[in-house]
TrEMBL record:
The protein's name: Uncharacterized protein
């Protein structure tokens, strides 16, 4: 019985941590509509196993399942998985994003979405650089361009991503402004969140 609960504790803990680590990749795959359902199922599974682990710890003095879940819960609460994954995404794909910037500035890439001149659909090779369909937003600033690569493309005005700004000063009116979060990553690069 201890092995069964230990196995369930590992499965529920790993499920919760993997969701926390991979949530932005998964939301792109499952869409923002289904991701809350997946989270709800993972949390309910974790809580049911936690309650059973507490019960077995009290009744039979078997502590390993509860310990596994306690470690997983601590990691979930105190490790900034979102920040780590955003930084990893930025540095892994920075050179590819710089290629896209060069292609936009040389007019190799032009707006391809007919409804607006500020959206460019990336070629298949570069689609992974902008979540939610492979589109980037572009705004001309003098003879250069500001570009926005989505890390999350939610509904209406709820989105986040990396913004490249060619000038030394951040344009507060870029892409409609109204940003809830602006974090400078390095010179010319910002992470933006809008809610």
């Amino acid at each position: 019985m201890e092995k069964q609960f230990l196995g369930l504790a590992f499965i529920s803990s790993i499920s919760l941590l993997l969701l926390a680590i991979l949530q932005w990749e998964l939301v792109d795959f499952f869409t923002p509509f289904f991701m809350p359902v997946i989270w709800l199922c993972a949390v309910i599974f974790f809580l049911v196993v936690a309650i059973a682990s507490i019960s077995i710890a009290v009744k039979e003095k078997v502590w390993k399942p509860l310990l596994v879940q306690g470690v997983a819960l601590s990691l979930y609460l105190f490790v900034p998985f979102t920040s780590i994954m955003i930084s990893l995404d930025f540095y892994l794909y920075k050179s590819a994003r710089q290629e896209v910037i060069r292609m936009v500035e040389s007019q190799e890439l032009r707006p391809t979405v007919s409804e607006t001149s500020s959206l460019i659909h990336l070629p298949p090779k570069y689609e992974r650089l902008s979540k939610g369909g492979g589109d980037i937003m572009v705004k001309k600033q003098g003879d250069k361009y500001a570009l926005f690569f989505f890390t999350f493309r939610g509904m209406l005005d709820n989105f986040s991503g990396f913004m490249y700004v060619p000038s030394e000063q951040f344009p507060t009116d870029a892409f409609g402004g109204g940003f809830a979060e602006i974090q400078e990553i390095e010179k010319h690069w910002y992470w933006i969140g809008s809610h």
